């Protein structure tokens, strides 16, 4: 990720990671979600504007950002989830998580569509379009990474390892739409996300980036369509992963 030489890389990662982590909350008010997405758009514009106008470079850049922010995505453990959702457990809890995540990604689509509507109505320009699409894609992926991690908690298969190892496992699960395979101890993000894994991640990001083009529809049609497509894609991912985890859940003592 290209950054201002005067600003430490760690500070940049933490700044963007904190914004993305806040966007993954499933109980955000629409106005707060819009503000957070606007902040993320600003971060993307400062850090990677030059990359956004070269499609291949843009996808590689987004893959790097996803790898950078994934360790910041907050994953609640099973006890916390039960407490937060009034004692729900098993399939009922999983269903609630999927529903809330789908609602959150729909909210991101609506917020992005709203920003795009203002761009079209007030100051029509394509300069901000790739930046907005990148920010929206990153936010949606982060919400889905959180969903994947928490579904693993629900079905007795918490993602183990260091922060980097967990992040790499979640990214691979998101790219392939399947449960996490246990990592070899001591293996980090750079090793796990080898050439094949990065290509799979970039291919998945490209599909999401293309889908998010609906955000750029004129007036409020972009917000409505983007919200619907985000909700459907997240719900499908959650359903697919739930079936996989339910089938392979550990036997009860």
Mass-distribution shape: globular
Major sheet characteristics: none
Kindly report the average pLDDT value.
74
The ordered H/E elements are HHHHHHHHHH
Number of helices: 10
Structural class: mainly alpha
Tell me the count of domains.
1
Percentage beta strand: under 5%
Total beta-strand segments = 0
| Radius of gyration, in angstroms, nearest whole number | 18 Å
State the helicity in percent bands.
55-70%
Measured distance between first and last alpha carbons: 46 Å
- Poorly predicted regions are 1-6, 117-127, 181-194, 213-221
Record keyword descriptors for this entry.
mainly alpha
Structure description:
With 253 residues, the chain is mainly alpha-helical. The chain has one domain. The protein contains 10 helices and no strands. Helix 7 (163-176) packs across helix 9 (195-211). The longest helix has 33 residues, at 90-122. The radius of gyration is 18 Å and the shape is globular. The model is unreliable at 1-6, 117-127, 181-194 and 213-221 (pLDDT under 50).
């Amino acid at each position: 990720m290209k950054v201002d030489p005067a600003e430490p890389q760690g500070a940049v990662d933490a700044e963007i990671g904190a914004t993305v982590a806040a966007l993954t909350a499933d109980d955000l008010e629409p106005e707060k979600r819009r503000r957070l997405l606007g902040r993320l758009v600003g971060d993307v514009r400062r850090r990677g504007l030059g990359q956004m106008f070269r499609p291949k470079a843009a996808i590689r850049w987004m893959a790097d950002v996803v790898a950078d922010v994934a360790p910041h995505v907050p994953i609640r453990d099973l006890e916390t989830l039960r407490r937060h959702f009034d004692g729900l457990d098993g399939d009922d809890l999983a269903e609630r998580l999927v529903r809330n995540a789908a609602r959150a990604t729909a909210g991101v689509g609506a917020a992005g569509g709203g920003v795009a509507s203002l761009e079209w109505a007030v100051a029509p320009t394509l300069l901000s379009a790739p930046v907005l699409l990148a920010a929206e894609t990153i936010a949606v992926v982060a919400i889905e990474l959180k969903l994947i991690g928490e579904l693993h908690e629900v079905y007795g298969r918490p993602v183990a390892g260091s922060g980097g190892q967990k992040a790499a496992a979640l990214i691979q699960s998101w790219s392939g739409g399947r449960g996490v395979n246990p990592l070899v101890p001591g293996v980090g993000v750079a090793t796990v996300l080898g050439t094949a894994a990065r290509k799979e991640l970039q291919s998945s990001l490209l599909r999401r980036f293309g889908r998010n083009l609906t955000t750029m529809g004129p007036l409020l049609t972009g917000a409505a369509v983007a919200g619907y497509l985000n909700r459907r894609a997240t719900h499908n991912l959650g359903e697919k992963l739930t079936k996989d985890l339910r089938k392979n859940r550990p036997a009860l003592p």
